[in-house]
Amino acid sequence: MRRRSFSAALVATALGGPAPLHPARAAQPVPVGLIAILSGPNAAYGIAIRAGAELALASINAKAARPIALIVEDSGGTKDGAINAARKLIGRDKVVAIMGPTLSNEMFAVGPIANGRGIPAIGTSTTANGITDIGPFIFRTALPEADVIPVTMRKAAARGCRTIALLYANDDAFSKSGFDVMQAAAKAAGLRIVATESFGSKDTDFAAQLTKIKALKPDAVGISALVEPVSGVLLQARQLGFGPETLFIGGNGSNSPKLGQIAGAAADGLIVGSPWFIGKSDAANQAFIKAFRTRYGRDPDQFAAQAYDTMFILAAAIDRAQAPEPERIRNALLETDYNGIMGPFRFTAHRDPASTAGVLVLEMHAGAFRIAG
Amino acid sequence: MLAQQLVNGVLLGATYALFALGFTLMFGVLRVVNLVYGVYFTAGAFVALFLARDLGLALWLALPVAAVAAGAVAVPVDALLLSRLRRTKAGELASLMVTLGAALALYAALAALVGPDIQRLPPHLLPVSAIQVGSLRVGVAQLLIIGACAVLAGALLWLMRGTRVGLAIRAMAETPEAAELVGINTGLLAALVSFVSGALAGAAGVLIGLAFNAVHPYMGEAMMLRGFAVIIAGGLGDIAGALVAGLVLGIAEVLTAGYFASGLKEAVAFALLVLVLWTRPSGLFGHAAPERV
Lengths: 373, 293
Hints:
heterodimer, A: alpha/beta, Rossmann fold, 2 domains, 5-stranded parallel β-sheet, 4-stranded parallel β-sheet, 13 helices, 14 strands, B: mainly alpha, ABC transporter involved in vitamin B12 uptake, BtuC, 11 helices, 74% helix, globular
């Protein structure tokens, strides 16, 4: 027992929390786990998430009656890695709650374990359908695509779009699920779907599909794919003569600064829904950005922002639970009523985000996103 | 729309034909299905990307340098992999397995070296403009591909049919032993064929990478299946046949996507392959087909 609380305190210190000098605080920090992708090709997501969570933790522990010891484990972006991390956090570190893992795929592997052991797990970036169906201990603060895309489609309708063509990568689960959402959301927003075309996510030539779409003259073109193929589609669309009269609409895959870097001016005008944006001018957001830049010397992204808010939401639930017991924390989480940098936040009874009030529609302009008019 | 789709099909088909030129040459002369060919294709694209993006070399200079570099890589790699197999007269299956293993190892090494992501030239370096004729639009980069395809195919045909070196290569393709008896240095010629084939692969990699502005380690592997379909449908070792088959495949894919269903586009390439093998069972590895290199 003594050894563990000592190592937990060491972790807290190493993670940049205030040194637990006060004896009452040093006695029992609350162990919380974070599973994130810190190595491999998708490490950028996990590194941002860890940075956001640790920034929030620093200000939480500065004021809290009982500090939180955040124990970070790398999943490497694989299901196996995420399962090992969860087993270690639950079995050895005896965490009372877990943040993460990063990918929906990983959550589908880790969720049943955490749920079975009665440890609340909160996904900060898991947007796929069905995450919270895993069980009563699984939460998410990330808005699923099913919530974000309808906001984008309504914006398109408000701009006067009446017809839309949809284009998606048919060999990738994320892109296909985004396409299903787009199809339903477009209909709900009153848009008529004039064409549905697919491609392979490694394809580089989209001329046949784009030529067909161009002949149908839709007001908008919705693309559900990861950022690389979306960039390729836009570059080729411009070459085939698509002009600013066609509104391009992206899914979550397009919500990346890489779009502007790869496609340049070809991406101008594309709109995409986002739960957070660096250009959002409210005081809380600006204070977050300033603190993040001071601590890390770079700009935060959406993933850091989601983890930042989630750390506060979880810490508040631990406080409300009064005792650091997983079951009590789970019940306290359900009573969340938090106003963070992504806007007002509550959970639904099914443990998903309750409101889309914080969703912003962004627009590509000169290679960068800005808030759409 | 039909006219534009036909143009799209010709442009896509030209990329397949361009890719298949060196591949079919290698098979026709050395009787080797050289799967490392796709690696030379990737290597050419990366050399040009590096020269143009990081060293600021003009694209028209980067193209020949990258082609020569890919050819220079092909000579020692092919010699290492294949010369022993050729000496011992191992069958096509042995060369297929050896080059498959080597190709997988080289792709993985390349991905470890440059990263698995798609890399691109900065948009301002690209010939992005398009030419509009009536309702037809053709990208300048795509026109470049058609031009390069015609020039390279013409040069290759001239080399094989219009020069003494070509005569010697064809003699070697016919019967290596007889060629040696009349004083032809078959080892040197095999190296030359490797170089030409590798350089063609490299040039194709640069042009195709440029046309779609997407360069990644596995781009050769993705083209390889199409390349197979093209050289089999065109007749193994038949340069003109590969050109025709490439165009037919490109047009068939585009028309399928444009008028039928884009999800079936991929299926067409391989349906074509199956069809050709049905109607010409002696195609792959069979020597009944006339050699017309």
